[in-house]
Amino acid sequence: MPRPSILIARAIFPEVVDKLAAHFDVEANQADEIWPREQLIQRLQGKQGVFTTGGERIDAALLAQCPGLKICANMAVGFNNFDLPAMTAAGVLATNAPGVLTETTADMGFALLMAAARRVTEAEHYLRAGRWDRWPCDMMIGQDVHGSTLGIVGMGRIGQAIARRGALGFGMQVLYHNRSRLPEAEEQAVGARYAGLDELLRTADHVVLVVPYTPEAHHMIGAAQIALMKPTATLVNIGRGGLIDEDALAQALRAGRIAAAGLDVFEGEPKVNPALLACTNVVLTPHIASATVPTRKAMAHLAADNLIGYLAQGRPLTPLNPEVMGEA
Ligand code: DGY
Known about the structure:
The protein folds into two domains: 5-100 and 293-325, NAD(P)-binding Rossmann-like Domain (Rossmann fold), CATH 3.40.50; 102-284, Rossmann fold, CATH 3.40.50.720. 35% of the residues lie in helices and 14% in strands. It has helices spanning 14-21, 37-43, 60-64, 84-89, 102-117, 120-128, 157-170, 184-190, 197-203, 223-226, 246-254, 274-277, 293-312; strands spanning 5-8, 25-28, 49-52, 71-74, 93-95, 149-153, 173-177, 192-194, 206-209, 234-237, 260-263, 282-284. The two termini are 29 Å apart.
């Protein structure tokens, strides 16, 4: 039996390339070129698997041109780059990388929340610009995090990890909104109370978005939703950029309609809306919520283990559409 061939679409840790090369013929993009879609399709010819990092769109049109493809393994928990129904229809397995990034990503949600509420990056820019020449009592005053009300939109693993940090570490009242309500025991375990989205936006001092991106969730936070928030509120997004209408947010930040925001994800990333770049009261980071050495390695190993599990051993670890294997 010839060894399966796989494509690693972006540069990854050399140890993970070596691990995959023990099982497969590997074409690896270690130069980390950003391949146009046509080039990706061309490189997928004759490949049974592809290691993706979240930026590669896998849809019906691509699959139609890559009939040999059997699995796409995302090194990300989010999989909005996958058209899952199209993959299932084409009999192509999709896998993601859940679990291994939960706590690291929750840490970053909190880092952005604190940096935005306490104006950390704004204050640093002020200091570096040489503008700090006295100590006015209202210099860079922001909002308290401890003891305030935290609103979490999206209560999966990461949302729950943020809730625990808020309730246990910072004595916050925690509200959450989710498609489905958690069982009571789970709500109690993370110290959170369910609320409708409008109630959450009206009540919370700090709002964190951790919702997976779907077309239904597109711009779920726009001008109308921001208008419900307190003028002292902060808004943090570690889900996906498309959850927020960025023009509306920039306008609200400029007008002081809300106090601050912390954003790790952007609708057109890696391009960032110039209107946001022009705001001083927003903390901006380049999609790094899961970026610690152990976590990024764990994500890469899990994606690799999914490829090995499926193509070499017949059993992936974290399938998104197990029905393609004849399982529900
Ligand atoms: C994820 O895993 O979805 C993170 O956003 C990194 O892409």
